[in-house]
């Protein structure tokens, strides 16, 4: 399989030479993914915590909806965002279609349910564990919430990284709302799709290797954080 | 403050777990709740502390219903203690801060008292069962409760841990903290109790001074229980 060694060499060469186009694509991929992740966390973590701790009518229904939404098909999300941002759509006046902002919105819609559902699960387990103790101690709800987040921080970090993994590897939605425009909305995944369609398999694979390396690096970082946390106090 | 329990009843899943229970518990000394498994001892304690709400009846603390201010003067040590995912010291500091105690030196003092000072910076979840229970007691004592509940807090512990806990309980009791303890351990009850409440099938069968209870139990169920017979 010479194509793998060829692609690996191409990936290494692209990185070693700090190819401008590659760096641009890489930077945009990370910017879009991190921005959508940050917004999703801002919405998803408090929402997950509320669903985990508070009991209210429709709570179970909402948990079910968010669980189901973890498997949202990206192309459908892309299409819906496209319809809303296109000129004839309700938000067409914002002029966001085919911009990185549109890509952030689409990814945010995809990631938020993951953050909500998984953080809800993590915090719900901790709430079950701590509930009686906190009730007995008459701990104010806000203090309890903070304690849950502090004590579940490493599990929540894993949740956040699951969201990042989904964002950085996503192609269906961003290609529809971003349009894969060179120097404007081209990210790693859409570039891979384009190079593959052009028959530039070596370059596509090289980009794939880089994407994989990012994913591995992030996961190793989490492993390291968890291991060092266990060494300290978090068990 | 004395506790007046007025005809409380609690039913769960069509099972009457507390059945028309009334008593008055004095504001000082150590009261022991005894009875066979399923008698409703732990549930009764949870009702006293406000973690379970009776369907009917009332629980009054010096003629006042239980409220957050009264509950903040109480502590409960659970049979299986909840340990926060932090160090031993951080566990204690968390509880201390809930009562406005911010000085780590005070927490250190309680750790010493419960023979945990050498483990202050260890992950609390990695402690042994006895150490966890001693940490739970340290957390309970640091709030300086006027009423301390213990729900089978020494079951499955080694004699050294039991002794440490009992010495601390007797010490805080002498300093004026009311203690209500659920236990199956007749020996422990004899060592600690000032009065005994004996429950069976959710009913209070007997409430008498410890000496009277152990010497001359009135009910057949209590007699059988103390004799180590099967009480159904």
In the CATH hierarchy, the architecture of chain A is Orthogonal Bundle
> Which structural class do you get from the secondary structure elements of chain B?
alpha/beta
What is the radius of gyration of chain A computed over CA atoms, rounded to a whole number of angstroms? 21 Å
Briefly, what CATH class of chain B?
Answer: Alpha Beta
Q: What fraction strand of chain A?
A: under 5%
Q: Helicity level of chain A, as a percent range? A: over 70%
**Largest β sheet strand count, sense and barrel closure of chain A:** none
Helix amount of chain B, in percent?
A: 25-40%
Given the C-alpha coordinates, what overall shape of chain B results? globular
- What is the number of independent domains of chain B? 1
How many beta-strand runs of chain B?
Answer: 10
Q: Structural class of the secondary elements of chain A?
A: mainly alpha
Topology order of chain A in helix (H) and strand (E) letters: HHHHHHHHHH
Strand order of the largest sheet of chain B: 6-7-8-3-9-10
Under CATH, the homologous superfamily of chain B reads P-loop containing nucleotide triphosphate hydrolases
Oligomer description: heterodimer
Summarize the structure.
Chain A has 235 residues and is mainly α. Helices cover 79% and strands 0% of the residues of chain A.
């Amino acid at each position: 399989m010479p194509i793998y060694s060829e692609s690996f060499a191409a990936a290494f060469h692209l990185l070693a030479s700090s190819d401008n186009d590659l760096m641009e694509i890489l930077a945009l991929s990370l910017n879009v993914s991190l921005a959508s992740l940050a917004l999703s966390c801002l919405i998803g973590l408090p929402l997950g915590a509320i669903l985990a701790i508070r009991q209210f009518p429709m709570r179970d229904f909402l948990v079910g909806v968010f669980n189901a939404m973890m498997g949202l098909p990206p192309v459908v999300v892309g299409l819906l965002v496209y319809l809303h941002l296109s000129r004839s759509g309700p938000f067409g006046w914002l002029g966001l279609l085919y911009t990185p902002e549109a890509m952030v919105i689409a990814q945010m819609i995809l990631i938020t349910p993951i953050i909500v559902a998984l953080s809800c699960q993590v915090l719900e387990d901790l709430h079950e564990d701590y509930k009686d103790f906190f009730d007995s101690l008459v701990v104010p709800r806000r203090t309890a919430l903070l304690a849950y987040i502090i004590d579940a921080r490493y599990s929540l970090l894993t949740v956040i990284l699951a969201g990042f993994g989904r964002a950085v590897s996503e192609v269906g939605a961003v290609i529809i709302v971003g349009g894969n425009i060179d120097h404007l909305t081209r990210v790693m995944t859409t570039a891979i799709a384009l190079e593959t369609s052009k028959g530039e398999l070596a370059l596509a694979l090289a980009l794939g290797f880089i994407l994989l390396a990012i994913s591995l690096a992030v996961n190793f970082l989490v492993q390291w954080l968890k291991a060092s946390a266990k060494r300290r106090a978090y068990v | 403050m004395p506790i007046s329990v007025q005809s409380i009843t609690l039913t769960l899943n069509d099972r009457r777990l507390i059945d028309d229970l009334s008593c008055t518990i004095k504001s000082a000394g150590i009261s022991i709740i005894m009875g066979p498994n399923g008698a409703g001892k732990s549930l009764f304690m949870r009702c006293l502390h406000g973690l379970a709400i009776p369907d009917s009846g009332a629980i009054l603390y010096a003629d006042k219903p239980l409220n957050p201010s009264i509950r903040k003067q109480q502590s409960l040590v659970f049979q299986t203690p909840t340990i926060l995912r932090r160090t031993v010291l951080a566990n204690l500091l968390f509880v201390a801060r809930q009562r406005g105690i911010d000085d780590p030196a005070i927490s250190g003092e309680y750790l010493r008292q419960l023979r945990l000072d050498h483990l202050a910076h260890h992950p609390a979840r990695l402690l042994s069962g006895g150490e966890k229970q001693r940490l739970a007691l340290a957390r309970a004592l640091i709030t300086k409760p006027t009423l301390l509940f213990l729900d089978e807090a020494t079951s499955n512990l080694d004699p050294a841990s039991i002794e440490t806990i009992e010495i601390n309980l007797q010490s805080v009791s002498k300093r004026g903290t009311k203690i209500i303890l659920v236990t199956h351990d007749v020996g422990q009850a004899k060592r600690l109790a000032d009065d005994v409440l004996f429950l069976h099938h959710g009913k209070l069968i007997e409430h008498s001074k410890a000496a009277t209870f152990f010497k001359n139990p009135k009910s057949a169920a209590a007699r059988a229980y103390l004799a180590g017979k099967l009480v159904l």
